[in-house]
Amino acid sequence: MDRMVVHNPAFCDITWGASGSTADLTLDIAARMQNMVCVETMMHLICTNMPVEQIDQALDIVKNKGLQNVLALRGNSPHGHDKFVQLRGGFACALDLGHPDVIGNNSVASIGGDHNDLSYLKKKVDAGAKFITTQMFYDTDVFLKFVPSEVSIALEDIKDNEEAMRSYGIHLGTEMCKKILANGIRTLHLYTLNMEKSALAILSNLGLIEEAKISRCLPWRPHPTNVFWVKEDVRPIFWANRPKSYLSRTMEWDEYPKGRWGDSRNPLYGALTDNQFIRSRAHDKKLLEDWIVPLRNVEDVHEKFKDFCHGKLRSNPWSESDGFQPESMIINEQLGRINIKGFLTINSQPAVNGAKSDCHIGGPGGYVYQKGYLEFFCSKEKLDALVSNCSALPSLTYMAMNKEGTWISNISETNVSAVTWGVFPQREIIQPTVVDPASFLVWKDEAFEIWSRGWASLYPEDDPSKKVLEESYSLIVLRVQNNYFLVSLVDNDYINGDLFAVFADL
After folding, report:
1. Neighbour count for residue 498 (Cβ, 10 Å)
2. Interval 265-286: pLDDT, tens
């Protein structure tokens, strides 16, 4: 899902299991799509084996989770039946479900391949549907009978070749879409069938997306229409690489920061739970391949951080996404050098002074600014040397804290500083990320915990490398009290500053 939404689809939908078999799972996934992945979500809802009370309950959950789009369907025949059977006390068709005032925004009408479809479709639109989508199809001439014979013939020759099947599917999908677009249709709805790579390949063949030009409009993906988060436009920078964790820890907030973070010294973040350490299977696989390797000493740990900065690793335990943020590639060589010195970076951004923005949120004609920022782990000895060097560089501000909460800083614990902002015509200044000491206190617990729960825990119990990693972790937190610190470093001179100069002789 994350790999698809970077291309900014108009929406993504989640199907309802046959005969309502996955109702709870569908509701949970839909809520996560809307609130964690932050993509406009459309949830399917069917009549099959669904009493009215259960549908009402599902719609209550939909509303409470901020979802505003439902695709109402009659559903297929119940298991063991040749045709649809209306459940006693249930609905007979999608039209019975089509009352958009239930959730306050969009109800969706679908069309299939029957000659009565236009009549049914008009009734659905009259009932309040705001959006029309077709059923999945393989023959564009039906859209402008089912799988055409030439497709069946082509598949017969390659049915035992998985790669050839995939390539043919991409080719067929591309040619279908070309024909659809050539006939004046402006919108494509692709069913990925959990194979997003094929869907993205089709879009790439059509020239509708370009991997090399994926842009990050804001440092974090804003919520599209969630009524609870829609006004949010500022966050602490510490969770820049772990947005889902941030969302899970702020889920219960009554309101979200708009315009300014404010001066609260006690943000009520949710407690650190297993939710913050849940990873996708694909990301877990990359972590296992990249980070679960033999480790002889702490210097090997430094080497892993350096390799990530140089693009040799695809994953990082402190990041929910794959690879480096593109903007940090500008400073990857400098990052690699300081990691070898024992400053283990987990978050960074280069300084930017008035870069032209293509951000659709701010509008055209805007400019983006940001201060150079680094976040890293280092020993107390290295921190002391860094602090000494900072005294000669007044544009640098820092705060550092170990696991026990020892605080070292040259700023007040109440100071909140913007590190990214944008200036756009006819808009107030947009300030999407800040450094907030109170939030740093919360974040440091999570950052330290990742050493064990995000990395060491991946090693088999009998692997000797696990002991090495746990020893380095204990050097940070346990065995040598207050020896390693999490450090946040800002260069406030975003015009002439050099954030890496402070590390030159360390």
Report:
1. 15
2. 445 787 877 777 777 777 788 8
State both tokens at 108.
């969706």
| Number of neighbours of residue 18 by Cβ within 10 angstroms | 15
Task: Examine the pLDDT at 264 and tell me if it is beyond 60.
Answer: no
**Is the distance from CB of 34 to CB of 65 less than 8 angstroms?**
yes
CB 123 within 8 A of CB 95: yes
Distance between CA atoms of residues 486 and 105, nearest Å: 45
Instruction: Sort strands 352-357 and 366-370 into parallel, antiparallel or unpaired.
Output: antiparallel
Q: List own/partner pairs for 126-130 with CB under 8 A and 24 or more apart.
A: 127/95, 127/98, 127/99, 128/98, 128/99, 128/100, 128/101, 129/98, 129/100, 130/100, 130/105, 130/106
List the beta bridge partners of residue 430.
Answer: 422
- Positive or negative, the CA dihedral 148, 150, 152, 154 is negative
Torsion angle of C-alpha atoms 268, 271, 272, 278, degrees rounded to 10: -100
Where residue 478 falls among pLDDT bands split at 50, 70, 90? very low
Q: Which of 325, 330, 334, 351 is nearest to 419 (CA)?
A: 351
Let me know: does 202 contact 177? Beta carbons within 8 Å: yes
Average pLDDT, rounded, for the chain: 79
Helix (H) or strand (E) holding 283: helix 281-291
Q: What percent of the chain has pLDDT over 90?
A: 28
Q: State how beta strands 372-379 and 344-349 pair.
A: antiparallel
CB 64 within 8 A of CB 26: no
**Residue 318: predicted pLDDT:** 94
Q: In degrees, to the nearest 5, what angle opens at C-alpha 219 toward C-alphas 256 and 425?
A: 80
Which residue is listed with tokens 């119940």?
78
**What torsion do the CA atoms of 475, 479, 482, 485 make, to the nearest 10 degrees?**
20
The answer to whether the CB of 125 falls within 8 A of the CB of 132 is yes
**Cα dihedral angle (478, 482, 488, 490), rounded to 10 degrees?**
-160
Residue 76 near residue 47 (C-beta atoms within 8 A): no
d(CA 481, CA 492): 31
What sign does the dihedral 377-379-380-382 (CA atoms) show?
negative
The per-residue pLDDT for range 417-438, each reduced to its tens digit, is 999 988 888 878 888 889 999 8
Mean pLDDT value of segment 128-137: 72
